[in-house]
Write a structure and sequence with these properties.
InterPro entries: AB_hydrolase_1, AB_hydrolase_fold
Largest sheet: 7 strands, mixed
Order of helices and strands: HHEEHEHEHEHHHHHHEHEH
Strand order of the largest sheet: 1-3-2-4-5-6-7
Keywords: Hydrolase
CATH architecture of one domain: 3-Layer(aba) Sandwich
Helix content: 40-55%
GO molecular function: hydrolase activity
Shape: elongated
Pfam families: Abhydrolase_6
Structural class: alpha/beta
Radius of gyration: 31 Å
Distance between the termini: 121 Å
Number of helices: 13
Protein name: Alpha/beta fold hydrolase
Strand content: 5-15%
């Protein structure tokens, strides 16, 4: 051992932890501060929080929001051909299918309903991922039907898609030369009161997020959080509060279908779809369709719903049913209500057989009968 004041015999300086601590103490931040040292240190440390927050927010905008904004700016609505009419008598009619909340493209749904071909050629509406402009969609329908020299239109809307279909039908009925022969509404909420409270609360919460979180309309990270929360019943619980395998399966499903899929509806589109219900314009659209315009007959309105109203967990179909009777039903009405046995909420892809059966056996005969009635009346009146 070295004596005090003499070097270590090995020639290696002896390690002195006390001197190291003294050196660190003398060189640390604020070592020379005498007055208000603790307060000044606290203020300095707290000032780092907004700097870190700004850095994280900048990364959020650069990585998540801005690329999605650029992608969405290039989207546009479209109408996509699915199939020609199965009946030559229906060659003068085009059927346009529209899907509901959270879905972008109606192609898969339209393909699941080949019975629509009995009414005319079938088209699918693909929404603009930045939002919904029903006048733009109506103008597209006029353009493609004019090109095909088709004078008649049928609109088919599933869930919230029925709200959009009614507004498009009003544009066509009151502002074009096209004859809207029918509007098919599949479990459509005619206003916000028709949405069951739990689903209504989720939608209103989403609108609040959209209002105050910057970039919420485009953020895929926030979409991931919302979609995983919506599926929490699949993985929540167990001794560790989260069941790992189920959580991974849910995460893979959300990433594949909602986040990394460019055909998934954006947050902004979902917001626009829910606002269409909140606006409550469907009743006014029904009133407009309940009157003949410029010699064009009133469209048939068909409401497809489960026989048991509680089979639809999202829409109070009994409520919508009553509103439709008030607006377009009655002795001289144009309303047909079709009650199914095995369907739930607007799920033709899951229950294609029953949907196609009721369309074939009930909807098509009703629409054709109403067309014949109006044609006979027009001949009688000498139009």
């Amino acid at each position: 051992m070295a004596l005090p004041g003499f070097p270590h015999p090995s020639g290696i300086a002896e390690y002195d932890d006390r001197r190291r601590r003294e050196r660190l103490h003398a060189t640390r931040l604020g070592a020379g501060w005498v007055r208000w040292r603790r307060t000044r240190l606290m203020i300095m440390r707290l000032s780092l929080i907004p700097l870190v927050t700004i850095g994280v927010f900048a990364e959020y905008l650069a990585v998540d929001v801005l690329p999605e904004q650029a992608r969405l700016a290039q989207t546009h609505p479209a109408v996509l051909p699915i199939a020609g009419p199965s009946d030559p008598k229906a060659s003068d009619t085009a059927v346009f299918d529209l899907v509901g909340l959270g879905v972008l493209d109606a192609s898969d749904t339209a393909r699941a309903l080949p019975s629509l071909r009995r009414l005319g050629s079938v088209w699918a509406v693909r929404y603009d991922n930045t939002g919904i402009d029903t006048k733009v969609i109506a103008d597209l329908i006029v353009k493609v039907t004019d090109a095909a020299k088709v004078p008649n239109v049928v609109l088919s809307g599933h869930s919230m898609g029925g709200v959009i279909a009614l507004e498009i039908a009003k544009h066509l009925h009151t502002g074009s030369t096209k004859k809207v022969q029918a509007v098919l509404l599949d479990c459509t909420p005619v206003d916000l009161d028709a949405v069951r409270p739990e689903s209504r609360d989720q939608g209103e919460e989403m609108l609040r997020w959209m209002g105050w979180v910057p970039g919420a309309r485009e953020s895929r990270f926030l979409r991931l959080v919302v979609e995983m929360y919506a599926r929490h019943d699949r993985f929540a619980g167990g001794p560790y509060l989260i069941r790992g395998d189920q959580f991974r399966d849910a995460l893979k499903d959300v990433l594949r279908t909602k986040i990394l899929n460019n055909d998934a509806a954006s947050n902004g589109l979902i917001e626009a779809q829910f606002k269409a219900i909140v606006a409550g314009g469907a009743v006014d659209d029904l009133r407009a369709l309940a009157k003949p315009v410029a010699g064009k007959p009133r469209p048939a309105v068909v409401f497809i719903r489960p026989h048991n109203p509680f089979d639809d967990p999202i829409v109070d179909v009994d409520y919508s049913h009553k509103v439709l009777i008030d607006q377009v039903g009655g002795m001289d009405g144009t309303l047909l209500v079709v009650k199914t046995r095995t369907t739930g909420h607007a799920n033709p892809i899951e229950r294609p057989q029953e949907y196609n059966t009721v369309i074939e056996n009930q909807v098509v005969p009703f629409v054709r009968e109403l067309q014949l009635e109006w044609a006979t009346t027009a001949v009688y009146l000498g139009r």
